[in-house]
Amino acid sequence: MASNVADINDDELEVYGNQQATNVEITSYAFEVCDSLLNIGPCGNITMGEPAFLSEEFVNTAEPDIELVTTSGHGKNGALCILQRSIRPQIVTTFELPGCTNMWTVVGGASAGNKSEADTHAFLILSQDDSTMVLQTGREINELDSSGFTTHCPSVFAGNIGSNKYIVQVTAMAVHLLQEAELVQTVTLEVESVVVTATMADPYLVLLTQSGELVMLVYKETKQGIVFNGEDKELVNDTRDARFIPPLVSQFHVSLFSPFSWEEIPQTNFPLHEWEHVLCLKNVSMEYEGTLSGLRGYIALGTNYNYSEDVTCRGRILLFDIIEVSVHLC
């Protein structure tokens, strides 16, 4: 064998090879099941029959409740599949709700002690022919006797707004904003006819009236409050931090309601000024030449502007004359 590399010919290289390693490493793989898509195929056989467990409420139905049983899969992945037409809840309790026309579930804000309630339904709102029923859900379902919800008239829509922080209840002539069961704000609608339907895409709320009028409301949060300047007696914006709890100020309205349906009569709403509180409301009789008795009935309203201790107390006396279904200020 030649000792000089230059003397090695091609035949010797082909027979003996070079000095590089000629062994081959075989790569091994280990397969693990990460996920599986369940299905009912391939089906080997199929039959139908009655369910083994069924609540009494579903036994005496017009159409029998039938299940389908199939053999599916192959080998160790074989199984029996039971197919149902719909879910079958286990009925805990049942009670009748006559006259119920619509229903909504809303999320209640989480309390300080239990944050897990933030994403659970807290209230069930049922709209009836002439009223609204509000049920509080939990381990039991209880009706709320006193709350910020409007219950004397039917509801048109209900839902959550502000990332489930608040609850919106829409009635025929107003929109109510609530936090849990406490009323925060009421927006009286100045429309010609009643609201018949509504839809919401947070933070927008769109209403449709019977006459075809569209009303859009938007939810906005602000940290600005109103402070009365004692010297100039003007309203100025005052920005507060998140620790400041803004006060809830009610805005009063005077409205007429039907004595038959107890619904608000359209175009009879008279809103009062902001920060104006009603102190008294009485029926009074005053002289009037157009009646046989010489007297005519009016509604007298006494108000007060609750500004601050630095502003002189002031108010108004309003006298209303009701003519058919229209309200006129005398």
From TrEMBL:
<dbReference type="Pfam" id="PF03178">
    <property type="entry name" value="CPSF_A"/>
</dbReference>
<protein>
    <submittedName>
        <fullName>Cleavage and polyadenylation specificity factor subunit 1</fullName>
    </submittedName>
</protein>
<dbReference type="InterPro" id="IPR004871">
    <property type="entry name" value="RSE1/DDB1/CPSF1_C"/>
</dbReference>
<dbReference type="InterPro" id="IPR015943">
    <property type="entry name" value="WD40/YVTN_repeat-like_dom_sf"/>
</dbReference>
<dbReference type="InterPro" id="IPR050358">
    <property type="entry name" value="RSE1/DDB1/CFT1"/>
</dbReference>
<feature type="domain" description="RSE1/DDB1/CPSF1 second beta-propeller">
    <location>
        <begin position="89"/>
        <end position="220"/>
    </location>
</feature>
<dbReference type="Pfam" id="PF23726">
    <property type="entry name" value="Beta-prop_RSE1_2nd"/>
</dbReference>
<feature type="domain" description="RSE1/DDB1/CPSF1 C-terminal">
    <location>
        <begin position="251"/>
        <end position="325"/>
    </location>
</feature>
<dbReference type="GO" id="GO:0003676">
    <property type="term" value="F:nucleic acid binding"/>
</dbReference>
<dbReference type="InterPro" id="IPR058543">
    <property type="entry name" value="Beta-prop_RSE1/DDB1/CPSF1_2nd"/>
</dbReference>
<dbReference type="GO" id="GO:0005634">
    <property type="term" value="C:nucleus"/>
</dbReference>
